[in-house]
Amino acid sequence: MNKLALINEFMGQPPNASEHGYQIDHILEFCHWFMGALFVGWLIFFLYVLVRYHRSRHPVADHEGVTSGISTHLEFAVDLIEAVLLVGFAVPLWAKRVNQFPETRDAILVHAVGQQFNWTFHLPGPDGVFGRRDVNLVTASNQLGLDANDPAAKDDIIVPSELHVPVDRSVIIELSSKDVIHNFCLPNMRIAQDAIPGSIIPMWFKPIKTGTYEVICGQLCGLGHYSMKGSVVVDTPQDYEAWLKERAEMAAQSAAAPPPMQRPPGEPPPGPSPATVPPPGAPPAGAQPSASAGPGG
Q1: What is the pLDDT of residue 262?
Q2: Cis before 117? omega within 30
Q3: pLDDT tens, 245-269?
Q4: Strand order in the sheet with 108-115
């Protein structure tokens, strides 16, 4: 690591794991050194003013003010450096992130849905086509409202909290939210984007290091905001294919399972439920009721 870049590590910045992250790091590195220089400069100026204009040396206030143009030049230089950082580096870099997306056929496409207080990931499965989702189909067991009658949804993969992606391959994540504004933030990938209800907002990155990286919510989204975390696991291509195959098999088994109230073929019918057991002394089931006896027996 460049010795000058150690200031980023000193400030608590996690290691970079994305292809574009070094550009972000260079900007942050310059900003940190620039802020450090401003801090030292203002501190020296403050100490100078305390000594130079102490009451013992200037019992009467000077109403003329500063007559030198040095301060004006310094202020202009600071403004110029900030404008160069913003217009020359930050804006073009962000424009590249939001306008120049990789080809979909070459990237991993994922839907990420936020809700208080977790993330749910939706992958299209082997057919590469996302199944239809409908908010009216959302239940406790179907968090995304996936339409089971849609043929494209049969092989879809839905995973909570943990997403696997391959290394050295672009990943496009389309963000949405079910309730309030969330923020999908990957500090190690140097990328973050808001998830807004009613909107689908894409973001992308290209991981260059395998490992497990934390996903946090960058927007204050409620009392459980602190617990809204997830993870992105960057695998080797072989490990990613194995994970994808495992999740696809689990999705197929889940789709083939009978509904909760439907009994598998060949299983004997259940015995009487407690509500159908006759009370003691009652006639057996199916018996015809006898004629009522008269008052004389």
Answers
A1: 59
A2: yes
A3: 888 888 777 666 555 555 556 666 6
A4: 157-160, 118-123, 108-115, 171-177, 201-205
